[in-house]
Write a structure and sequence with these properties.
Radius of gyration: 29 Å
Helix content: 25-40%
Number of strands: 31
Shape: globular
Distance between the termini: 88 Å
Mean pLDDT: 90
Strand content: 25-35%
Largest sheet: 7 strands, mixed
Strand order of the largest sheet: 6-9-4-3-12-15-14
Low-confidence stretches: 1-17
Length: 629
């Protein structure tokens, strides 16, 4: 029987050979794009030629594109019906093994019209090949933009064309009323886009970017891209993120004064770290950042901060410890479906906080030299390829010569947390004995420092398998203190007791303002149960303050004072001062303010619910003028 001019068997054979499939390692594609941008009219129109070689044994008969625009046409191909996204096309002729495909695409996309002072950056403006995962490709982009608008893009500008080899996603910025400044960082074109009000911040970001790129190049031997562009993001100075390869948002540049200079230097180095991890070495799975890529990028900016003496940049790992205290399931290896069901801030608690804590702990366990060797090897071995955490585990095991399943199973595939305490300490006859007890759910080797009255210090490492380990330190002078993890390489995080989890959930659900009598009832429950954790007590303290339960609020704020960390102590002392002022106990309030001013660094915290920014200048004012609501 014949069906449309071919045998039934032959038709099924042809159809079966042209279903969409993706090569394991697609060859690098070349994009040549011309785009016409009408910012006032809110429209982009373009055409592009994409060339790639089929290096797989199987012919490619269908190609897919990621694109959310209004119009999309692939010359000489038919769009496959019933597939909304990505857009799927049947090629007129399959691309056989060894052949080079040349795809000509025409498209149009609508955007909101731009007004003066408005601008935006995106990497989702053009159709790009979809394989189900990211790939590094080469770009040549020519843009036609009306006079009076600011336009910058990924890559180096050369004879009217932006050229960007080996990038994951090509970004553009279009705006009106913006200024542009450029610097050279050893052949890398560094650009900052800014408003007149945001210029001081942009200049600092630009200077830092040049320095950070030079540092990273010296450390790793290369920088993976030929450009870096910093563009303004949201109004709130809360950080940033990479919008495309070689293009990053940094938020809140017009409110530079609300953050110390070290914060802006840190966020610049942090975002540049993503250019190595996720834009050069690629995350396995969806074309997004994941915890491993983020953690490896944070490790890079940590080394930069140490080299440049940058402090007060924000402790990302503390968000992880707070999450553990709240009873969150901090398992890192979750599926997309599991991730969508999470209602709390997984991005900050786990992808940023726990990932950096885990890699610091790994470095402590295997040694900095071995960790650095594995880190550099991954940069070489997985350049332009996808790397999973299992790949990373294998490399680390090979470099260290150790089986590290015990480490990765605990940190990646469980919510276990490390928490150790000094159970006892005694000295007799020149020998000091220190007993360290595991009270958390994770087993880790931890460093213990014994500090003596003569200023000397000795260190030892506990046995990972021991629930309780006894360490001996010989000394001729009395023991002054014992410190577990003096460098905090292994982050201590105290998980709540099972009986406290319901209480924590109720505290977490409290609004920051208008909690009513629920705050007082939960405070009494927390006090009677002996609830631990700075985050829950701070939430209760603010709820009590808001409802004018000042005596109880004072006690709640006092719970934070013994905390490990300048920021917690600062918040505790300043707010104790506020409440003591409200209670008419001015002399005690002044004492708290003076103690806050003695803390190191330049801590500051914003309370948006009260429209307050508290820093040392604020505290100086409170010494002159009592706090009022």
């Amino acid at each position: 029987m014949r069906l449309f001019g071919c045998s039934l068997i032959a038709c099924f054979s042809v159809w079966g050979s042209t279903v969409f499939w993706a090569p394991v390692n697609p060859s690098r594609a070349n994009y040549s794009i011309t785009v016409r941008i009408d910012p006032a009219g809110g429209r982009l129109e373009g055409s592009e030629t994409i060339r790639f070689r089929n290096t797989a044994a199987r012919p490619i008969g269908r190609v897919a594109f990621l694109f959310g625009g209004d119009q999309l046409r692939l010359r000489g191909a038919e769009r496959v019906p019933g597939v909304k996204s990505p857009a799927l096309f049947e090629l007129a002729k399959s691309v056989a093994h060894g052949e080079t495909a040349e795809l000509v695409v025409e498209w149009a996309i609508s955007q909101p019209p731009l007004k003066d002072g408005e601008g935006g950056a995106t990497s989702d403006w053009y159709p790009r090949l979809y394989w189900g995962f990211g790939t590094l490709d080469d770009y040549e982009v020519k843009a036609q933009v009306p006079a009076g608008f600011t336009f910058v893009a990924t890559g180096k500008f050369d004879n009217g064309i932006y050229r960007a080899p080996g990038v994951l996603a090509f970004g553009i910025f279009v705006g009106k009323g913006f200024q542009v400044a450029t610097r050279d960082a050893g052949g890398v074109a560094v650009t900052a886009v800014f408003t007149a009000k945001g210029e001081p911040c942009a200049r600092l970001l630009l200077k830092t970017a040049v320095d950070a790129i030079g540092y990273y190049r010296g450390r790793f031997g290369f920088y993976p891209h030929n450009s870096l562009t910093i563009v303004p993001g949201d109004e709130d100075p809360k950080g940033g993120y990479p919008v495309a390869t070689g293009m990053v948002f940094v938020h809140g540049q017009e409110r530079m004064a609300e953050r110390p200079d070290d914060f802006w230097k840190w966020i610049t180095a942090h975002e540049i770290g993503h250019m190595y991890w996720s834009n050069y070495v690629l995350a396995q799975g969806p074309d997004t950042l994941d915890w491993l890529m983020i953690g490896l990028g944070i490790h890079a900016d940590r080394e930069y901060r140490r080299a440049r003496g940058i402090t007060n940049a924000g402790e990302l790992r503390q968000t992880y410890a707070e999450g553990v205290e709240k009873g969150y399931d901090t398992t890192m290896d979750v599926t997309d479906e599991q991730g969508r069901a999470i209602q709390w801030d997984f991005n900050n608690v786990v992808e940023h906080g726990k990932s950096s804590a885990a890699l610091d702990a790994l470095e402590s366990a295997i040694g900095a030299k071995t960790f650095d060797a594995a880190y550099r090897r991954c940069l070489r071995q997985y350049a332009g390829k996808q790397m999973s955490w299992r790949d990373f585990e294998r490399v680390v095991e090979e470099e260290s010569g150790q089986d590290l399943g015990w480490f990765f199973e605990q940190w990646v595939r469980s919510a276990a947390a490390a928490y150790y305490k000094v159970a006892a300490q005694t000295c007799s006859g020149g020998d000091c004995t220190v007993r360290i007890a595991r009270v958390g759910t994770m087993r880790m080797p931890v460093t213990v420092a014994a500090r003596f009255e003569d200023g000397s210090e000795q260190r030892a490492v506990t046995e990972r398998l021991a629930d309780e380990d006894t360490l001996h330190f010989p000394s001729k002078t009395p023991l002054k203190e014992v410190v577990i993890e003096p460098e905090k390489a292994v982050m201590m995080a105290a998980a709540p007791a099972p009986k406290d989890k319901d209480l924590l959930s109720q505290i977490e659900a409290l609004p920051y303002v208008g909690a009513g009598e629920a705050a007082l009832a939960l405070y009494r429950s927390a006090r009677d149960s002996g609830l631990q954790g700075d985050g829950p007590w701070l939430k209760l303290a603010w709820g009590l303050y808001d409802e004018r339960h000042y005596a109880e609020a004072l006690e709640a704020f006092r719970k934070l004072e013994p905390s490990d960390g300048t920021m917690w102590k600062f918040v505790s002392l300043v707010w104790q001062g506020h409440v003591l002022d409200l209670l008419g106990r001015r002399a005690e309030a002044i004492g708290k303010y003076q103690a806050a001013l003695q803390l190191p660094g330049s801590p500051q915290v914003r309370h948006d619910q009260y429209h307050m920014k508290i820093d040392k200048q604020w505290v100086e004012e409170r010494l002159k003028t009592p706090f009022t609501r």
